Amino acid sequence: MIRLSKKTSDRLKSAATFVLVVVFLTGFVQYLRQSLFVVRQVDIQFSSDSQIGFSNSVLEGVEQKLAIYKGKSTFALPIRSVVDSILEDKRISHAQVSRTMLGDMRVKLALRRPIALYLDEAGKAFPLSFDGEFLPKVGMEELPDLPILRGRKFQKELALRKDVLGFLGQLPDFGPFSLASVSEVRFDEKNGFRFWVSEQQGAIQFGSQLSDQKIRRVTQVLDYLHSRRLQTRVIDTRYDKKVVVKLRNGS
Questions:
Q1: Mapping DSSP to helix (H, G, I), strand (E, B) and coil, where does residue 216 land?
Q2: What is the CATH number of domain 116-247?
Q3: Has this prediction a pTM greater than 0.85?
Q4: Are 52 and 116 in contact (CB under 8 A)?
Q5: pLDDT in tens, 188-213
Q6: CATH number for the segment(s) 41-111
Q7: Residue ranges of the domains in the chain?
């Protein structure tokens, strides 16, 4: 029988204790990772300026994409891949993803703010970004209150879309001639751009040129018509130094 010295015996006991502690801690950490540090809930929020009409459908789409991560370890969560997956929706301009030790995945989204809608011949509505890009179509129940562009010209020609969207971007938010008051825009070779506003039944003809000066002139005319409660057949801004107004019978 081999007898160990007290010093050697103490060293072996310390080593055994250390191994047991390491094994216990490893198992405990593994238990925590499997039972506590897993994705249990996905919390999705929108930035303060992103509460627009189609946010509900965006929310549903993101929730469906992120459902595959529930129950998986938060430590193994591929943040970059999650962000890339979210940004596949062109309506989303920015996505920030973080995780908590308690198993929550937090997602903050910023949406691209459309400036107008394109309505095709089948009645499908597509939001338009400031750069003229078509965003995914939205249902009628989600339509933002924005000017509607009609006509195949707008569908086919990016430069034409950019012209009218740039012009709309110069309009004030509210007023007689504003982003809120413009209801519809069309374009044809004969008349150029034609706008309709909420308080007038007649069209506003701009021709092929849209300019700041015409915004001021149309605003003055609409202010006058509103003060006199007059309705027009057409407001023609195609002249260099004047605006021609044709009133409806009885006005």
A1: helix
A2: 3.40.50
A3: no
A4: no
A5: 988 899 999 988 888 999 998 898 88
A6: 3.10.20.310
A7: 41-111, 116-247
